[in-house]
Amino acid sequence: MMIxxxxxxxxxxxxxxxxxxxxxxxxxxxxxxxxxxxHFDLALTNSKGSRLWPTxxxxxxxSGVSExxxxxxxxxxxxxxxxxxxxxxxxxxxxxxxxxxxxxxHPFEGGAQIDIIDHGEYRELVWDGLYQTPANARRHxxxxxxxxxxxxKQLNDNIGQLETVECSF
Length: 169
Hints:
Strand order of the largest sheet: 1-7-6-5-4-3-2
Order of helices and strands: HEHEEEEEEH
CATH class: Alpha Beta
Number of helices: 3
Number of strands: 7
Low-confidence stretches: 1-15
Shape: globular
Mean pLDDT: 89
CATH superfamily: START domain
CATH architecture: 2-Layer Sandwich
Strand content: 35-45%
Number of domains: 1
Largest sheet: 7 strands, antiparallel
Helix content: 25-40%
């Protein structure tokens, strides 16, 4: 009985010592679902060749948007440029996919879902995520907050540039 209590207490303590970090970003665009999907596939293969991915914030190498693909993201943070791995899953082509942090090399647990919602005249790109972070990872959370604000601003800018080329106004 004591062993069961210790297991329950250690699980409770571990859970209570984590801090959630939620993020959500939505962009309305005239880009087609096919175009957005193709741009994401290229970005998750090699972001250097992508006009969608905010390459000023990070670079990506991977196998694109394919089930169980591993993508490696190198974050640009001055002198400190960590690389973390993510697993792509739950793919519904032209509509949605998720990515999850690979626990062996990532300081957070969790990931995000990216949805492309077609409203006929426009699409919504919805990026919705949640990470559980260790309570003592304050520096990582602060970096992520600054990074994600910069990343999503650059994503908006990149989508705007793509719209000038791909959409007829």
